[in-house]
Design a protein that fits this description.
Layout: E1 5-11, E2 18-23, H1 27-35, E3 39-42, E4 49-54, E5 64-69, H2 72-77, E6 94-99, E7 102-107, E8 113-114, H3 118-127, H4 133-143, H5 155-161, H6 169-179
Antiparallel strand pairs: 1-2, 1-7, 3-4, 4-7, 5-6, 7-8
Length: 211
């Protein structure tokens, strides 16, 4: 492989991940092309994996892509959930949603973009294999429908079952932060943290590359 290229993984909305290469000398422009806009980096998976996302993905109409669930490492460090900022996440809880296409690359000792090892890329393919996780959690937040309980094909089906909402995910999340409450299918599922996002998430969902 060309030393001036970085090898990573693109995770597109509604599709399986696939491998990509970018020019290190033109990395910012190529990252922006891959995510269709300005970028920001999320360093939540550990092991030198950077997730480059569209920094306005929650606000610009981008479609829900993947859900990020908390690992044991994230619980130990005390990461706050990124939808309500209401409480530190527990292992297996919903940490955040990524909207729009995003891409994973490595980082070198100087903090510059680098290739990911093939083994890590293969594990990330497994981690992000299901393209529906973000959409299911979006439906859960927007309509209060538990994603593990319902297999919805599209948002129209959700609207048929529940009162239709025209609010974006960002608007719903903002309201949740202000009220410290999130829509829930089961009213008895609240806890003292003020947020029940992810309370029913199984605790054994950890990323293969997590700590």
């Amino acid at each position: 492989m060309n030393e001036m290229q970085a090898h990573g993984l693109l995770i597109p909305v509604g599709s399986k991940p696939f491998e990509v290469w970018i020019d290190k000398n033109n990395s910012l422009a190529e990252l922006q092309d891959l995510v269709n806009g300005n970028v920001e980096v999320l360093r939540v998976l550990g092991n030198g994996v950077d997730l480059w996302v569209n920094d306005e993905g929650l606000f610009n109409g981008s479609q829900p892509n993947r859900a990020i669930y908390a690992t044991k490492h994230m619980e130990e460090v005390g990461y706050l959930d990124q939808l309500t900022f209401g409480h530190p996440v527990k292992e297996g809880e919903l940490y955040s949603l990524i909207c729009g296409d995003f891409v994973a690359f490595g980082v070198d000792e100087e903090g510059e973009i680098a290739s990911l090892p093939q083994e890590t890329i293969d594990k990330l393919k497994e981690t992000f294999a299901d393209p529906s996780t973000g959409y299911k959690e979006y439906i859960h937040i927007k309509y209060g429908i538990e994603p593990d309980r319902y297999q919805l094909q599209n948002e129209h089906a959700a609207g048929d079952k529940h009162e239709k909402s025209t609010k974006s995910l960002a608007e719903v999340a903002t309201e949740a932060r202000e009220s410290s409450l999130v829509l829930s299918q089961d009213e008895g599922n609240h806890d003292d943290s003020g947020s029940d996002i992810g309370n029913s998430r199984p605790i054994d969902r950890e990323y293969p590359i997590g700590h």
